[in-house]
């Protein structure tokens, strides 16, 4: 079985069909490329073939390159991995360039065979780079299809000619959002942008493609960039308009990436430098920059965490081997912010939901929240009125526990109060079938403690969502001491149904994500108390790739909540409570009514409409900024190691059992510097000995919270890396 097959009809049109065996979506592999190359050679050489239609037998065209192949190219490159990557990429360019020239005479540019890409659906990455090398792209009018080049989102850039071809087809300005942000379009949007040439009804796709092949003239096959006098749309770099574009784009890239994502800058360099030279040289430049990015440890780490391991977790890499536990009817207890959000995502995934609150009005409000989100999605054209109605019909808001009779999973999201939670646990268990799994969405209360209210503790588990539920992609599943495997499998199957990414952790205070994010916030607040300039703290965080500075983050999650958590933690820990310095700051702000964004006042100032204006100038009156200020790396190390050491402790203590979950969870859960691939990937990048050296210094200057965990010290002594020592070997990925 090969990935591509071909068939020539009586009219002389050879249809090459992409259909990777055993997969629902085509992905490109090296073997696939070789198949395609051979079929193109054969069709170009066959006098009976007048032209070629390249299409797919699946509902979509292709999802992209198999990123495992890209990762392997480097690993298997032997003594000179950069050369291996460069040669591999140039090999692909040669095939795509052959398609583009299609046998035409290099001087007269005549006599080539027309090649059309006919896209039935989604075409991403190499799945669009290949069509871009063809002479025409015709897409089926399929509103669900996504067309684009999303490579930048996993830390690389389109390196199969897509960067060079798209910039030349559209101009740097128009291509910028597609290349630099990985923006995807449906076929009509792609046509409006000039990415595809034609959109036709799905049933006409192949006929139209064949008709174009048979009617094409020599001139139709010559790409603008192969014609004499080609000028880049919008101007090349030394044209006044082009100059403006590139100056603006450089500033935008730096502003958005803070200089920590090598791929965005390399992409821009490839476009800029490529625009100054002939097309074939531009491809070589693109390949060199692509190699440069692949050789950067950041790209490998991002591919590993954001693609390979994320997908492995979603496909159940850590799922107990039990029969399918898909949820049919979900009971949600508590229709507040979280409960309503959970009801919305579950109903959207086709699950029936019984949404219970103490009063009918509150339950109805929860459903209204789902309705508002669906209305928004409909206005944006993401769902139809019919889908909206179907989703809403699945949600039954009620106060009556008897309605839970058919539920196979309960998620509890009532007030964060053990007594209230115990009460609803008992009531729900009395109303549900004996095999129903009960989950709590608590963010701070230990699962094993809450399980005491349950008659079936092996069916009791934590399923911890993040707010806002519809946007946050991570779900933390927490095993209590007595939680059984079926509960874990049920939780994982539920998360798969709602298309989020799960991690499974053991029960400990704040589980994993909150355990790491709280020290980050606290370290920022401590520095305010010490007289470090708040702007230095916030910018230091952003310059290491954190999406939000710690002070903005606490404003967004609310200073009031911080105060509540601090009080509860202090009560639970007693004398051992380590964060009095932090409390002094947030309690003082809270006393002033500065409760965070929702109060329009916090570490930042806000206007009446809630728009963030800048750091609140009054901070200086409370905590004067000292002179001299610490150096930037010192502030950055404090902010990073506050999180990273907590992740290492979570691993050391067995809260985390899989470093893949630690890395993926950190990026999706709290936005830990995605360029790094996560805390463990970052530690591997700098090496355990360097990490120990930095932390020993931090501990000496700032205290025991930076004390090096024994595990890390042992690893430094042994010369171990986390992925070397802990990478799961028995499981996929
Ligand atoms: P919320 O106050 O918005 O909602 C709680 C809801 O529970 C309210 O509608 C309330 O009427 C209802 N409720 C209270 N007692 C009840 C009872 N006995 N029976 C039925 N309903 C009852 O709170 P929230 O922010 O949605 O948080 C809910 C849970 O989710 C808490 O355990 C919280 O720790 C957790 N959580 C919150 C967040 C967050 O960011 N807010 C994130 C993750 C987890």
From TrEMBL:
<dbReference type="Pfam" id="PF00725">
    <property type="entry name" value="3HCDH"/>
</dbReference>
<protein>
    <submittedName>
        <fullName>3-hydroxyacyl-CoA dehydrogenase</fullName>
    </submittedName>
</protein>
<dbReference type="GO" id="GO:0070403">
    <property type="term" value="F:NAD+ binding"/>
</dbReference>
<feature type="domain" description="3-hydroxyacyl-CoA dehydrogenase C-terminal">
    <location>
        <begin position="511"/>
        <end position="606"/>
    </location>
</feature>
<comment type="pathway">
    <text>Lipid metabolism; fatty acid beta-oxidation.</text>
</comment>
<dbReference type="InterPro" id="IPR006108">
    <property type="entry name" value="3HC_DH_C"/>
</dbReference>
<keyword id="KW-0456">Lyase</keyword>
<dbReference type="InterPro" id="IPR006176">
    <property type="entry name" value="3-OHacyl-CoA_DH_NAD-bd"/>
</dbReference>
<dbReference type="InterPro" id="IPR008927">
    <property type="entry name" value="6-PGluconate_DH-like_C_sf"/>
</dbReference>
<dbReference type="InterPro" id="IPR036291">
    <property type="entry name" value="NAD(P)-bd_dom_sf"/>
</dbReference>
<dbReference type="GO" id="GO:0004300">
    <property type="term" value="F:enoyl-CoA hydratase activity"/>
</dbReference>
<dbReference type="GO" id="GO:0006635">
    <property type="term" value="P:fatty acid beta-oxidation"/>
</dbReference>
<dbReference type="InterPro" id="IPR001753">
    <property type="entry name" value="Enoyl-CoA_hydra/iso"/>
</dbReference>
<dbReference type="InterPro" id="IPR029045">
    <property type="entry name" value="ClpP/crotonase-like_dom_sf"/>
</dbReference>
<dbReference type="InterPro" id="IPR050136">
    <property type="entry name" value="FA_oxidation_alpha_subunit"/>
</dbReference>
<dbReference type="GO" id="GO:0016509">
    <property type="term" value="F:long-chain (3S)-3-hydroxyacyl-CoA dehydrogenase (NAD+) activity"/>
</dbReference>
<comment type="similarity">
    <text>In the central section; belongs to the 3-hydroxyacyl-CoA dehydrogenase family.</text>
</comment>
<keyword id="KW-0560">Oxidoreductase</keyword>
<keyword id="KW-0520">NAD</keyword>
<dbReference type="Pfam" id="PF00378">
    <property type="entry name" value="ECH_1"/>
</dbReference>
<keyword id="KW-0442">Lipid degradation</keyword>
<keyword id="KW-0443">Lipid metabolism</keyword>
<keyword id="KW-0276">Fatty acid metabolism</keyword>
<dbReference type="Pfam" id="PF02737">
    <property type="entry name" value="3HCDH_N"/>
</dbReference>
<keyword id="KW-0511">Multifunctional enzyme</keyword>
<feature type="domain" description="3-hydroxyacyl-CoA dehydrogenase NAD binding">
    <location>
        <begin position="330"/>
        <end position="507"/>
    </location>
</feature>
């Amino acid at each position: 079985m090969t990935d591509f097959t071909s068939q020539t009809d009586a009219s002389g049109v050879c249809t090459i069909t992409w259909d990777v065996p055993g997969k629902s979506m085509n992905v490109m592999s090296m073997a696939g490329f070789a198949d395609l190359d051979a079929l193109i050679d054969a069709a170009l050489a066959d006098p009976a073939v007048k032209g070629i239609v390249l299409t797919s037998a699946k509902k979509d065209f292709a999802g992209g390159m198999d990123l495992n192949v890209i990762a392997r190219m480097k690993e298997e490159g032997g003594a000179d991995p950069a050369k291996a990557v460069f040669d591999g990429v140039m090999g692909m360019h040669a095939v795509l360039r052959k398609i583009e020239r299609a046998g035409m005479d290099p001087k007269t540019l005549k006599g080539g065979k027309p090649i059309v890409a006919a896209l039935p659906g989604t075409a991403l990455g190499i799945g669009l780079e290949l069509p871009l090398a063809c002479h025409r792209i015709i897409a089926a009018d399929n509103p669900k299809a996504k067309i684009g080049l999303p490579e930048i989102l996993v830390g690389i850039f389109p390196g199969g000619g897509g960067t060079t071809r798209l910039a030349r087809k559209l101009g740097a300005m128009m291509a910028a959002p597609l290349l630099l942000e990985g923006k995807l379009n449906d076929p009509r949007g792609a046509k409006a942008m000039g990415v595809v040439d034609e959109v036709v009804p799905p049933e006409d796709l192949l006929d139209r493609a064949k008709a174009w092949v048979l009617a094409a003239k020599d001139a139709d096959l010559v790409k603008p960039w192969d014609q004499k006098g080609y000028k880049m749309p919008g101007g090349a770099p030394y044209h006044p308009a082009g100059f403006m574009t590139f100056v603006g784009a450089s500033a935008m890239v730096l502003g958005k990436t803070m200089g920590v994502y090598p791929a965005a800058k390399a992409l821009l360099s490839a476009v800029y430098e490529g625009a100054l030279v002939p097309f074939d040289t531009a491809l070589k430049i693109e390949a060199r920059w692509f190699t440069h990015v692949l050789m950067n440890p950041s790209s490998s780490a991002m591919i590993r965490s954001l693609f390979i391991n994320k997908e492995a977790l979603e496909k159940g890499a850590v799922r107990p081997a039990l029969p399918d536990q898909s949820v049919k009817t979900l009971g949600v207890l508590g229709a507040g912010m979280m409960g309503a959000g959970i009801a919305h995502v579950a109903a959207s995934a086709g699950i029936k939901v019984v949404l219970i609150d103490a009063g009918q009005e509150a339950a109805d409000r929860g459903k209204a929240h789902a309705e508002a989100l669906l209305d928004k999605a409909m206005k944006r054209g993401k769902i139809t009125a019919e889908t909206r109605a179907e989703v809403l019909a699945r949600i039954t808001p009620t106060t009556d526990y008897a309605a839970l009779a058919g539920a196979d999973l309960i998620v509890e999201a009532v007030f964060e109060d053990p007594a209230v939670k115990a009460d609803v646990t008992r009531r729900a268990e009395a109303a549900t079938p004996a095999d129903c799994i009960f989950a709590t969405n608590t963010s701070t209360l230990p699962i094993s403690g809450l399980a005491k209210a349950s008659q079936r503790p092996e069916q009791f588990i934590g399923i911890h969502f993040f707010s806002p539920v519809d946007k946050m992609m991570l779900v933390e599943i927490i095993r209590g001491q007595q939680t059984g495997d079926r509960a874990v499998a049920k939780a994982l199957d539920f998360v798969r149904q709602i298309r989020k990414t799960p991690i499974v952790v053991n029960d400990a205070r704040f589980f994993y994500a909150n355990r790491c994010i709280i020290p980050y916030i606290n370290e920022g607040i401590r520095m305010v108390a010490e007289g470090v300039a708040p702007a230095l703290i916030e910018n230091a965080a952003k310059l290491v790739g954190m999406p939000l500075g710690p002070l903005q983050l606490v404003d967004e999650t609310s200073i009031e909540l911080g105060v509540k958590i601090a009080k509860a933690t202090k009560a639970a820990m007693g004398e051992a409570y380590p964060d009095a310095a932090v409390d002094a700051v947030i309690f003082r702000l809270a006393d002033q009514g500065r409760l965070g964004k929702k109060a329009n006042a916090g570490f930042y100032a806000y206007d009446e409409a809630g728009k963030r204006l800048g750091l609140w100038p009054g901070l200086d009156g409370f905590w004067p900024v000292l002179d001299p200020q610490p150096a930037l790396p010192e502030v950055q190390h404090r902010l990073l190691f506050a999180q990273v050491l907590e992740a290492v402790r979570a691993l050391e203590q067995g809260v985390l059992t899989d470093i893949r979950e630690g890395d993926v969870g950190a990026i999706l859960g709290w936005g830990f510097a995605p360029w790094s691939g996560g805390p463990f990937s970052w530690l591997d990048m700098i090496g355990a000995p360097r990490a120990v050296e930095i932390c020993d210094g931090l501990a000496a200057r700032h205290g025991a919270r930076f004390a090096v965990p024994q595990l890390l010290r042992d690893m430094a002594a042994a010369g171990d890396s986390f992925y070397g020592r802990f990478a799961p070997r028995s499981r996929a990925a």
